Amino acid sequence: MNYNHVINHLPIHKAALSDDWESVSQIFDKDPELMTTPISYLGETPLMMAVGTNKSHNFVKQLVDRIVAVNAVDKLFLASSRGDNPLHRAAIVGNIVDARVLVERSPDMIRIPNSDDYTPVILAAWHRNKGILQFLLKETADLGHEEEGSSLYSGVAGGDLITLTIHAGFLDVALQIIAKHPDIVIEEDANSVTALEVLGSKPELFPSGSTLGFWSRLIYLCKSLYFYLDYRRLDV
């Protein structure tokens, strides 16, 4: 396999990893297409590489602004050979700073799955990055109406979201999700497991040192889930 493009674009590669926008600004001025050209052996663009560092925030901001300025917004989310785009990468590494920049430019990208069918929200929960998970959930709520079959809170996508959130130990976030989307508790994840089953199988999530207020909310949640499931069974 020929990796000459990696060698040819090594200065851009280094700049993306070291938050060095000044060294490549003129390069992009002369050849704007390089801003969205894959420069790594994994087919990553400069934007994806910079986002993945969770440190090159100035590089990302400058690059995104420049890409938008040349009317190439559709290329902001080009995927690597592994099927991840920059927002997926931000969710994986917990990069909330650059996620804000990306979502501001294209909010609908929150709903886009990668090649494994995981959205940025699910990836944030899977990799236990609470800050960006909460940010993406808020932005998802602000998107408004979802098309049929595209909801992040139903089907396997909903099951994955709530079970992964519980597995991560983010019970406060799980409570907030269930409060807004109660049907999510009966959705099965990719392993055919529901939120209630996960709660029952992970006693380590409930340390004896928890505050009474949290325990009260948790007990109320569990009771509500049981009653809800019973109601759904009778309603069928």
- Rg from Cα: 21 Å
Structural shape: elongated
Distance between the termini: 56 Å
Average residue-wise pLDDT: 85
Number of strands: 0
Structural class: mainly alpha
**Percent helix among the residues?**
55-70%
Write up what this structure looks like.
There is one protein chain. The chain is mostly helical. 57% of the residues lie in helices and 0% in strands. It is built from 13 helices and no strands. It has helices spanning 4-8, 10-18, 22-30, 46-53, 57-69, 86-93, 96-105, 120-126, 130-141, 155-167, 171-180, 195-201, 212-235. Helix 6 (86-93) runs parallel beside helix 8. The N and C termini lie far apart (56 Å).
Which structural traits does this protein have?
single chain, 236 residues, mainly alpha, 0% strand
